[in-house]
Amino acid sequence: EGKELAEMYELRESGAQAFSDGLKPIQSAGMMVKALQYVKRFNGVIIQVPDDQTMAAHGLMNEGIVSTRMGLPGKPVIAEELMVSRDIALAGYTGSRLHITGISSPRAVDAVYKAKQEGINVSCSVTPYHLFFCDEDLVTYDSYLKVNPPLRTRTDMLALRQALRDGKIDCIASHHLPQEYDSKILEFEYAKNGMITLECLYGAILEAVPDLSPEHTVELLQANPAKIFGLDTNSIREGASADLTLFQPGNKYRFEMSMIKSISKNSPFIGKELTGKVVGIITKKSMRLN
Fold this sequence. Notes:
The chain has 290 residues and is an alpha/beta fold.
């Protein structure tokens, strides 16, 4: 319930790399500052979902013209921006490390970028669906598009794409969240948040931002996350264990239900034209091709 700290030092000793409250944004500033101070002892990272839930707690989508037309309660983008501003201030105060995941406001991205320029140890990630969809796509009340933070306006979506190009966003997080059939195929109000993204993430990114270079894409998906969370950066060298992904940047295709290997099928990308396809992996001594 966000009221007590976990035994983070012991968890770190057992191999934990980063800490969060899962899908729940940490609402208490007092709890957040304690967590940041605690992980500073071992250079840990706190992950935060940017959402002040005291503002429009029952909002179902982005507050704006589209939510008004659809008659759905909205969640204002300032709920995200307030949380980001607060947590940046706390990270600066403690001198600790903070990662904001699922950022969807261009103004919040700019706040993170400015904080980094000022020496505050903060980073951020964007989801593939905030780059691909916007609130206008919700006019059909497609519950597969119900997520938190919610899809923002088309202007916001395009600004996020540009921020990705400009290097203001550190990495892309899948926010892969499987849901059972009955949790999604019902009235929008009662549907659970989240979608599956792992199996189409690469194609969705390049369809949304086709001018991303392969080098920049690898930085966003592998090198930068490894750096932020203290993981080994894989390299191709003689004698190293193979841990490779094989992909075709120019491969255009329609994403179909049959391509989903997950048990859950809650993907709004089904039927969408995508660009860029993962065709296989090589891990240690095994190979798997799609």
